[in-house]
Design goal:
The chain has a five-stranded antiparallel sheet. It contains six helices and five strands, in the order H-H-E-E-E-H-H-E-E-H-H. The termini are far apart. The protein has two domains: 134 residues, 2-Layer Sandwich (Phosphorylase Kinase, domain 1), CATH 3.30.200.20; 34 residues. Keywords: ATP-binding, Kinase, Nucleotide-binding, Serine/threonine-protein kinase, Transferase.
């Protein structure tokens, strides 16, 4: 029986690993990130600075930020709230998988609706000095790009106090006492900073 010689192409193809490899975790996260970056675009664009020049002439609002590209650290989810100055998103830390809320304030809304820049700075400054307490939202970090200011903070699920009161209509005396006690504790912590 005669031996068949292999061509160099045949040899290299047999020693190569299969092209159908399993995706690494990083590749899967990147794929997921791209899908989530599209989610909610109709509500407010969250893009990195290389994709748009809107508000490029707008001054920097915050002096001490964690970075300029929030999407390098967080994956944005659904919109969980809206206010005069911004949109609040459900967001997930890509590395720890911890879930937070992110208040994204469009610099266009600052220009168009005269949202006071000093109020944004004050909000961040106050959140930075507040102590950790069960009933006080804790600031995680801030980001600022040419389009938005992003404030990442604890996610509080369950609605606000007004919604709770309206949903139950009447509270028991015990419920009212617990609510007042919590409010007094938070005010006490705030005034002893």
């Amino acid at each position: 029986m005669e031996k068949q010689s292999k061509t160099p192409q045949d040899v290299s193809s047999t020693n190569q690993p299969s092209l159908k490899r399993k995706k690494t975790n990083e590749q899967m996260i990147l794929k997921i990130d791209k899908k989530f970056q599209k989610f909610g675009k109709e509500d407010q664009d969250i893009e990195d600075s290389s994709t748009s020049l809107i508000c490029s002439d707008f001054p920097t609002i915050l002096s001490d930020v964690a970075g300029h590209d929030i999407t390098s650290r967080y994956v944005f989810g659904k919109v969980i709230g809206r206010g005069d100055s911004g949109v609040i998103y459900h967001c997930t830390d890509k590395f720890s998988r911890d879930v937070y809320a992110c208040k994204s304030i469009s610099k266009n809304s600052i220009k168009e609706h005269s949202v006071d820049i000093e109020n944004i700075r004050r909000e961040v400054r106050i959140m930075k000095i507040l102590p950790h307490h069960l009933n006080i939202v804790t600031l995680k970090e801030t980001y600022e790009d040419h389009r938005n200011v992003h404030i990442v903070m604890d996610l509080c699920e369950g609605g606000d106090l007004c919604d709770t009161i309206l949903a139950k209509y009447l509270h028991s005396e015990k419920d009212a006492a617990l609510i007042i006690k919590t409010i007094v504790e938070v005010v006490q912590v705030r005034f002893f900073i």
